[in-house]
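Q: Can someone sanity-check these two? First one:
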Amino acid sequence: MAEETVPAIEPADIRWQDGVPESRLFGDVYFNRDNGLEETRHVFIGHNQLPERFATLPDHASFVIAESGFGTGLNFLAAWQAWRNTPASQSTILHFVSAERYPLTRDDLTRALALWPELQDLGDELIRHYPPLVRGVHRVLLDGGRVRLTLYFGDVLDAWRELEFTADAWFLDGFAPSLNPGMWLDDAIHQIRQHSKPGTTLATFTAVGRIRRALADTGFSMTKVAGFGRKRDMLTGVIPESASETGVTDVSKPASIAIVGAGIAGSLLARNLAERGVDVTLVDGANKAGTAASGNLQGALYVKLGVEFNAQTQLALTSLLFSQRFYAPYRHNGWHPTGLLQMAWGEQEQQRQERFLDRNHYPPEVLVPVDAAEASRRTGVPVATGGLWYADSGWLEPAALCRTLADHPNIRHCFGMEVQRLSRQEDEWVIAGTGPDIHVDRVILCSGHRTPELVPLEGMSGAFRFKAIRGQVSHLPKERIHAPEAVICGPRYLNPAHQGICVTGATFDLHDLSPQESANSHRENLRELNAMLPGLWNNEPPADSEAKTIEGRVGFRCTTHDYQPVAGSLDNLEGDKLNGLFLFTGLGSKGLTYAPLLAEFLADKLTGQPACLPRSLEKRVNPHRCYRMEAAKAH
């Protein structure tokens, strides 16, 4: 077995026998040699009564299938096909949650799924969105969001402990218990019950007595039934309706929801909920979406991954990979995947990148190290040092993207309304401001550094550890420079030209809260950019005196004390006073990268659907950590 690597995960070691994939590690085939698709339909689709159950789902409902081994994805594609073939409401969502310790490479997955021509369109879509082989949770949106695949690359026990979901049906797959006993441990079976509820069904190809008894002991009513082909028996099970509830019940009818703030966070969350069939009121003081911190002409899709692969790095990586997949449909409509160079700028950053590469192994689909010559070739600009190349990153038009996201029939715009006060009245929230009051069940504050002053705790805004940090960008006319073909990040970032302008910046002004452009800030941007890319200018670099003529823009990042984002509920902070109030802020300068995943997470929470963040990362973004109890008590 290969040596453990972080964050990359060891792929499946496949041996192809007569065109059928077989695991060298477990000495077993991935599916029936005669007809694996029909076996899947017999064992998992039919014995979980999926077509019948899909057809009776009410509007806005979700159906959750959980699986103990993703393998080639054949079971998933069969379930997806059954979902497509069922005349269910377009507002329903199929969630498929699966764990895989040894995921297939993209090439092996492509070869395996080529065996099933009738699944080709689904298989091709899965392959296009298949994540790089790195540990942890990957949320994949398919079929226009009607199918949400949650893939956990890692040990199955870790998956069931980390993931928050309640299954309607289980596919207990994986290699035979005699060949892969770890998949069938009592602990794993106990976790299966913890993620089930009355009415949850299961099916498994195995008929081993020990497995049947273990499942029965946890509360499943088990039955041995006819197997498929040469396999005589298999098992099915169900949690009786009279059983006690252990999991979280899905919310079938979303509550009325208002989102305060139409920047990238609020626009993404509104669109996510709207596409799940939820009616949303989007509130902002401006007359359109994307005018405050999200109003810049350009923004880079970028994170700086840590030398240590800890929770902070994992959140950044997961967010980056999800955002790259999420923005793909917006290519050339706000999203420009040009690639991105993180320069090894200066001795300190060079040493940091050396340590990073020494301690971590990332698949090349995520990043590759490049020398100065290769970096210059890929960016189209002479650079003095190499760095890390992110092929699937690039830049966005944040303001235009916000307006596109906010344009949906299920999103009601309440623009031009400055929110002045939130109050809890009986069972609803009332939003008061410069327009008519808005009455809703739930409120999400996506209002940046203004968020603390809107939380309705008398005199407590200082208890929240949020800070506004000024950032000024500079607009460089394309004709003045050798415009790059990709994003370059160092002490400043520089984007490719758009409408004759390349955006560079941004300053990081801790003690300046002026909303006005400053010539000194433009000078600072130009000095840093000239030091980073001295061969950038077509002629001489701009003199300091030219800073007064340069145009740009000022925005304010909202950061937290630990520079980690905030996404979650304040329900338990002050009891019922804050029930139904959520925060989505603190994204700092990485909002374009963090916001898609965290919007997906909050939409999961608000609709009662499986969460795309593992519990360890959910703690990382919990807003309670930003509330200083001692400051609150002082009031």
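And here is the second, same format, sequence then tokens:
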Amino acid sequence: MKLKLSVLSIMVTSLLAGCQLTGPDHEDTALSDNRTTCEIAHTDINDQADCELANEGVIEVMHPSEEVEVDLDQTLDDVEPGIVSDVWRRASNQFQFDIPDNERIAIQRDWYLKHPAYMERVSKRAKPFIHYIVQQIEEREMPLELALLPIVESAFDPFAYSHGRAAGMWQFIPGTASRFGIQQTWWYDGRRDVVASTDAALDYLTYLNDMFDGDWLHALAAYNSGEGRVGKAIKRNEEAGKSTDFWSLDLPKETRAYVPKLLALADILKNQNDYEFEWPEVENEPVITTVDIGSQVDLAFAAQLADMDLKSLHALNPGFNRWATDPEGPHRLVLPLDKADSFSEALENVEQNDRLNWVRHKVKSGDSLLKIAKEYHTTVDVIKSVNEMKDNMIRVGEHIMVPVALKKLDAYSLSEDQRLVNTQNQKRGSYQLTHEVKSGDTLWDISRKYNVNTRSLAKWNGMAPTDPLMPGKNLVIWVNEANDEQKRDAIMRTLTYTVKSGDSLARIAQKFNLRTSDITKWNKLNPDKYLQPGQKLTLHVDVTRLKNVG
């Protein structure tokens, strides 16, 4: 079977909640966000008020819409008698939760029933991962309704990102991720790694269930809004002599909708025949497996060994931020089941040093390890490790070995940098301007300067409105009107060029219609020194010429 796995392209507003706290300005913007959700539902909506009611209070989640075809062809054995052929049915046969007959669940159920196309898209994203997730939940003897939680959290999108810096299929914020052992480095973010994040999410849910004395609805509410908030709500009701069940608690609007969404989905799946709803089937067979790789490897090289295209391999391994796996691990890749053995056999015949491409860099005046690391898109620690350096001291004229990407960086289209580039370059207006963040800048200040919406400004730059701004970061601003200076700036783009064998400053300058003196200045180069293959150059290019450059 050939599956399509949705990965990053553009950001849209989702009806989905996330595992994070509701921001202080959320309620003021909820109505407009939900109206957008209704508009993108790809179905006629006769009752706008009903749609908005179903999505009242939910947090905006940014997630992809482009579909990447992941080749998971394999020959499946005939299903044994008595074995359920659909993994969703396998899960629903083990559901445990009671579904109350109340309006809050009915509102959510009606929304899903009216939008079958939404479940089609979600199920396509889930196909590579749902069997694995169901299996993990079964092994822990946890309620199988939890297999539906990634639908509520992220629409089964490992690249999803939302308010509070929540990321991944299970929508972990950085602090909670760290608490439950999820690694987050420059190279790797385990919140997007389906294996690591699933393990951590089930650990967290187990912890919450124990904290709330086995009450799964309290645990789910706490997963969404924090155990402290739910605990305080229970205490308030106890002191007031009120019931402490989930339905009686005073919780944020998002959380009040969050648990009913999960229960509504469970009800629909369990009773789809009664509701005349066709829940898309997924074969009850494993389609992926993990392979031990032992050390860092270039993802492009790994894709070649696996006989896969780079984007497909990266889509199955969304935790890796850059062009290679993390040198400190995890040293594993998720691969299609039918490709794992041949990949492992091929990798065994490759020396560790051959798993990466290398450049021999001659240290120039003004070089530092940090400057070199940025130039080649790696880290100081990696350079020090491969060159067995005890400190950061380097000397002019000496040579150091630096790992570099096998392909041009834009070929790694699902890396963190390229996902941001794709997001920022999605056309949102007539002119694209760039603002370099200065110390003290806020999104509010910048939005006022350019007369744009704060929430839009954040979305254009792959951020949530509450994310911190770092000085030196370049933000993209889309406007429909601009002065002459802004119009000139709008046609310029900054790109990273990887030096190829035989390249010279003159040849690169001619290719991009630039002056060699400008390239030298932008990159602080010595014009009398040869360029090294693999070296990265920053170029500022007229965007109208980019389509003419090979």
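A (reply): Looked at the second one. The longest strand covers residues 492-498. Residues 194-211 form the longest helix (18 residues).
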